[in-house]
Amino acid sequence: MVHAVLSEVVQDSRGRLLAALIANLRDFQLAEDSMQDALASALVHWRRSGIPANPTGWLLQTARRKAIDRLRMSRNFDNKSAQYAHLLKLDQADAEEESEQEIPDERLRLIFTCCHPALDPKTRIALTLRTLGGLTTAEIARAFLDREPAMAQRLVRARHKIAKSGVPFRIPEGDQWAERLNSVLSVIYLIFNEGYAATKGDRQIRVDLCEEAIFLAQLIAELRADQPEVDGLLALMLMIHARRHARATPDGALIPIEDQDRTAWDQPMIAQGIKLIETSLLRGSLGPYQLQAAIQAVHSEALHFHTTRWHEILGLYDLLVQFDGSAIVKLNRCVALSYVDGPEAALQSSQDLDVELAEYQPYHAARAAFYHRAKRHSLAVQSYDRAIDLCDNNSATAFLVEKRRDAKKEAEQMLGL
Amino acid sequence: MKYLALIYSAPGSNPDYGTPEFAASMEEWNKVNQTYIDAGVMVSGDALQDVATATSIRIRDGKTETMDGPFAETKEQLGGYYLLDCADLDEAIKYAAMIPAARYGTVEVRPIMDLG
């Protein structure tokens, strides 16, 4: 019983508690350790004296006291230290007010700290998942195919760097806001993509990571309303995640959007995404996430693949290229072009990307599909071969191998073999 | 908090002495110095003689070994430093980014260890 209540409190409030603790302690590692102490203590005390009226408040207060103990026991303890004095004062205030009030939400500050550009991108992802999401170190290690001790070490190093190098615990302002928000959004989108399109291993969809990413974007949208790009990213992820039941066979093989059973799409989630992106576009401040969401909205609104409004998608890609002129965005534009002006036009247009995307599996897979549709079968087979060589995801490889077999068969039929 | 900004660049990447570019660059460095002083973050800052003047020293088995050259041979070499007193890393990054060499070399920002 106590265990169940505690798990629920942890599930609902872990990020919020940890954020409040870090705000008080200014020390990630101490906050994390004190929180563990408080959870262990809760199991003992709640069993003995019953579950407190305000379990989260109890945990926060206990964790602070555990932090005071830890500071006292530390090797170079100085009872005049500012950190210690600050904690004692907070503890006293708590006792006087019976700690009934709501814990202030410090998670927005925390996410900006976790996604600080002074941290390595992979570390930002891991630290955000560990601190604000509900993932354990072991789960994060599994998601990134790292060994758990290596991931734990990465997290320890990150907390050490934040403490020692003066990474501020602050929401950036002024001209820093847009740039730093972008860093946060890209961390969230990387988490989502890691879940959506695992580059290695067997499971194509790792729902956990996708849901964590959606949760984080919702959190930011809730804590700082009316940010067009936040809503854009959230809408984008919702509409992609809405296809989770349609995009793989039961044995995990990938199903591309053209072959998906659209009745399996999560319509309430799509509606939520479309509503978000429509409201966001009305604010008149375009950005790359909003444009990608708008593209997904057009896909989501098509009842069948062949009724997709490709002209609209191509127009949106033309706008997106202005924000993000990367070769990958240009490749996606070529896919849209192939449905507007035909595969030959797409082959021509994607030619320029050949050097930059030489090692990029989806480039060769897309070229193969263009050749295939243009009935240039032997070139299609060659491109499929190149894509298969570069692919390290089993279900995507299986998909490409099957497509290659089709192209080969069609080539032989044309030759009358 | 104090931060050491270590300034690295490849030899020859900064303008040659006596050229108009050199004069413009000196003016830029002076402007940066003044910005730091006005903002109250400047503790100290110096340029170093070139890496050919470096001597590296270590003691092994009680004997002093002296070597001609820098600690590590790298393409970008340490050419100077600033010691800045800033509120936090964001401020340190903001000021370090003003160093002209950041455009053709690399500036490494390291917090000074607080032993007090």
UniProtKB/TrEMBL annotation, chain A:
Residues 111-161 form the RNA polymerase sigma factor 70 region 4 type domain. Residues 180-280 form the DUF6596 domain. GO terms for biological process: DNA-templated transcription initiation. This is RNA polymerase subunit sigma-24. Residues 17-74 form the RNA polymerase sigma-70 region domain. One of its GO terms (molecular function) is sigma factor activity. Gene3D superfamilies: 1.10.1740.10, Winged helix-like DNA-binding domain superfamily/Winged helix DNA-binding domain. InterPro entries: DUF6596, RNA_pol_sigma70_r2, RNA_pol_sigma70_r4_t2, RNA_pol_sigma_r2, RNA_pol_sigma_r3/r4-like, WH-like_DNA-bd_sf. Pfam families: DUF6596 (PF20239), Sigma70_r2 (PF04542), Sigma70_r4_2 (PF08281).
UniProtKB/TrEMBL annotation, chain B:
It comes from Neptunicoccus cionae. Transmembrane segments: none annotated. InterPro entries: Dimeric_a/b-barrel (IPR011008), YCII (IPR005545). Gene3D superfamilies: Dimeric alpha+beta barrel. Pfam families: YCII. Signal peptide: none annotated. Belongs to the YciI family. Residues 1-114 form the YCII-related domain. This is YCII-related domain-containing protein. PANTHER family: BLL7171 PROTEIN, BLL7171 PROTEIN-RELATED.
